[in-house]
Amino acid sequence: MSDRYKIILAEEIIKTNCIPSLIPEHCIELLEMPNDSNLGDYALPCFNFSKTLKKNPQKIAEDLMNRMTLSSEFSEIKVIGGYLNFFLNKKLFIKDTLTELLEKRENYYKLNIGNNETILLEYSSPNIAKPFSVSHLRSTNIGNALYKILTFLGYHVIGINHVGDWGTQFGKLIVAYKRWGSADFLKKDPIKNLFNLYVQFHKEAETNPSLVDEAREVFKKMEEKDAALIDLWKWFTTVYLNDFKRIYDALDVKFDHITGESFYNNHVASIIELLESKNIAKINEGALIVDLAAFDMPPLLVKKSDASSLYATRDLAALLYRKKEYKFSKILYVVGSEQKLYFKQLFKTIELLGFEWGKSCTHIDFGLFHFKDGKMASRTGNIVELEKVITKANELALQTINEKNPDLEDKEIVAEKVAIGAIKFSDFSSKRIKDVLFDWNEMLRFDGETGPYLQYTNVRILSLLRKYEKDIEDLDCEFSKLETIDEFLLVKELYNFRTILVKAASEYEPYYIAKGLIDIAKRYNKFYTSHQILKVKKSIAEARIGLSYCTHIILNLGLSLLGIQAPSQM
RNA sequence: GCGCCCGUAGCUCAGCGGAUCAGAGCAUCUGACUACGGAUCAGAAGGCCAGGGGUUCGAAUCCCUUCGGGCGCGCCA
C-alpha cells in the first residue's frame, strides 16, 4: 500500500520529463516526509539525480518545480537545499482524511495485505519445568501483538504455544523429587516447591555431576513410556499448566493451539528415519548429527547417544507435522535471539530434506532480559516471577487511582487494565532486538511514553464525548472548520498510522505501532490543551468532537493490536 | 578462539538503503488561564552519536579496525 499523496506526486514528477530514467515506483520510494512539517509535508531529495543529469541538485529541484503542475491536493512547492518540498492543501487534506475515517472507522486501517494467507505463529512457548518469569513475557507479548496485527491486516494466523513440556529437564525434576521431595510437600505449594527442587538439583549437580546422568537416564525411560515416570510427569506438567493458565488469563493472551513438545513424541521416529533415508544425518561420537559444515555452521544434534530425543528432533517433527496439518505459507518463531544459530540450523536441515519452504521459515528474535547483576538464570533461582510483577503493578495502579480518582467505580478492574497496560507497553517501547534491563521503576511507570498515557488520552476523549451528549451517528462535521496547525498535525498522524501498521506487520515489529500511538496521543494532548472543544461555536465544536472521536478510534484499535485494554474511565 | 547482536543526553531508547538527522521519554529546574480529567501541556538544561582510520561534495548512518557489553558455538531448551 502506498501513500496516495506520494502516488499523486510521483505521477506529476514523472510527467515533467525532467528526470528521464525515473519510474513511478522508484519515485514513490524516494519521496519522504520531513520530520519538521515547516519544511513541507512531502519532499523529494534531488541529490541522487545530480550524477546522471550532471546538474546540481538545487537546479534540478528548481527545474522540476517550474515544470510541475500541482494538483489540488497540494498548496505549495518550495525548493530548500537540494530538496523539492511539497505542502499539502491542509483544508482539503483534513476534510478528506477525516470524512473517510469517520465513515469507515477502524476499517479505514484494515488494509488487506495478507490475502488470507496462512501464517503459523509460534509464541510464548515456556519451559514448564519452572515458574512463569518475566523472561517469558517478551515472546508472549510480542507474539500476541503480532497475532493481532497480522490478523487485522488480512492474514489467517494460527497461534501456537509450543509448551516446553518434554525433555531432560523433567528427568532432572523427577530425580530431584525422588531424592528430596514428597507427595505431601508438593500438595501445599507445588509451584514453589517444584521450583525449589529444580534449583536444588542444579546446585547439587555442580558437585555431583552424576545427577545429570541420572536425569538423562530417567528421561530416556520416559521416552520408553515408563508408566510410573509418566504419571509423575503428568502431575508436574498439570500443576504448572494450570498455574500458567492463570497468568495467560491475567495477560489476556490466547492461543489457537497449546501443543506441547510431548505431543510430537510419536512423530520423532519417522523424522529420524527420514533424515537417515535421505542420508542427511550421520552417526558421530555415538550421536546422530546433521553435518552443516558446508554452510559454515556447526552440526545439529538430532539424537542423543542414548537414543533419546532432543529439542531439535521434536522441532523438526513439529515443523513437518504443522506443514502437513495447517499448510502454512509462512511460519514465524517468536523466540529469543540466543537461539539464532539454532534456528538457522533447523531451517537449513528442512531445506536439506528437500523442502524448499525451509527458506521461508522465520525466526522473530528479540533481546534478553538482564538484571543489573547479570543474566536471568532460572537454574540458580535468579528469576522474577511474572505474577509478582503483576501484583505489584496492580497495587501501584490502584494506589494511583485512589489518589487521582477516588470515586471511580470498579477500581480493581480498571487498576488491572492499567497495570497490565503498563507492563505490556514496556515491551513495545523499544525495538525487539534490544536487550532489556529489568527495572521495576521502568516497567511500572504510568506517565510519559507509557501504556497508561495512551489509556489516559483515550479516557479523556471518551469523557468529552459523554459530555457532548450527541450521538456520534448524528454528527454533522464540517471538517473544513478545523484550521489550526495543531489539528492539521494531528490529522497527519492519524493518516500516517496506516503506513505504520503495514511497516509493523512487514517487519514484525510492534514497536512501530506503539510509537505511532504515542505520536498520535502527544498531538492530541497538545491539541486538547491548546484549544477549547465544547464551548466554541457549534460548527467548530462538532468538527472537533469528530476529530476527537477519530483519535479515539485509532487509540482503541492500536491498543487492542498491542493486546492492551482501554478502560473508559481511570 | 570463531560467529552473530548491541554501543547515540545522567538513565531508557528512536533515528542507520548518506543530505530536511542531533531526537523522544524519564530524572532535574521553570511555568500553565474556571476549559473539557494535571496519569496532561509549555519551556530550560543536557550529546566529539564508544575511539581511530577510510569512501563521499556530504557519515550517527556505508567500509575497515580497536575497545567495551551481550549471546551462541554437540548429547540443555
Provide keyphrases for this structure.
Isoleucyl-tRNA Synthetase, Domain 1, 3 domains, 5-stranded parallel sheet, 21 helices, alpha/beta, globular, 570 residues, Rossmann fold, 54% helix, Gyrase A, domain 2, single chain, 3-stranded antiparallel sheet, RNA-binding, 14 strands
Describe the structure in your own words.
About 55% of the residues lie in helices and about 10% in strands. The strands form 4 sheets. It has a 5-stranded parallel beta sheet. The protein has 3 domains: about 5-90, 2-Layer Sandwich (Gyrase A, domain 2), CATH 3.30.1360; about 125-260 and about 330-380, HUPs (Rossmann fold); about 385-560, Isoleucyl-tRNA Synthetase, Domain 1, CATH 1.10.730.10. The model has no long low-confidence stretch (mean pLDDT about 95). It is an alpha/beta fold and about 575 residues long. It has 21 helices and 14 strands. It binds one RNA strand of 77 nucleotides through helix 7, strand 9, helix 14, helix 15 and strand 14.
Q: Indicate the CATH topology of the largest domain.
A: Rossmann fold
The CATH architecture category of the largest domain equals: 3-Layer(aba) Sandwich
Structural class: alpha/beta
Task: Please report the total strand number as a whole number.
Answer: 14
Largest sheet: 5 strands, parallel
**Unreliable runs:** none
Q: Strand portion, in percent?
A: 5-15%
Which strand order spans the largest sheet, edge to edge or round the barrel? Answer: 6-5-4-10-11
Rg over C-alpha atoms, rounded to the nearest angstrom? 28 Å
- CATH level-1 class of the largest domain: Alpha Beta
Q: Determine the fraction of residues in helical runs and give it as a percent range.
A: 40-55%
